[in-house]
Amino acid sequence: MALIECYECKRSISSEAKACIHCGAPMAQQHEHTPAQAAATISFGSLPRNKSVPEAFIPPAAPEPAPRVSPAAVGRRRRQPEPAPQPQANADGSRPVEGWLKIMVFLLPMVFVWFLLRNGHSMKQRFFGFGWLALLILASSLSPK
Question: Binning pLDDT at 50, 70 and 90, where does residue 131 land?
């Protein structure tokens, strides 16, 4: 395997390649072996390269420089962000019912009792919430019209 020059783009390619990897032009050896295929191939050529004009070069991105530290802050450490407070678990390991949820379950149980179905609430908490909802439904159905 040797490197040869493509007849269209003038770049180096392998002698075993069936087409140029840069411009896609078929190799001249294929033209000799299959003239019918060569007649079907249309080539629009390429623009001549001007060797006096260098090709575009994009340098790799430089790593971000370290932040500058003022002389007064050399020995100090940055404050780390405080982690979000985790809710304290009840004695049985269930999550506590927040104050806003207690109030809203009492006032509008039809809507807010469903929040007790979230992960972590105990069966006792769910029983009280849905019991209150059932009591209100029962009371509204028994009331005189």
Answer: very high
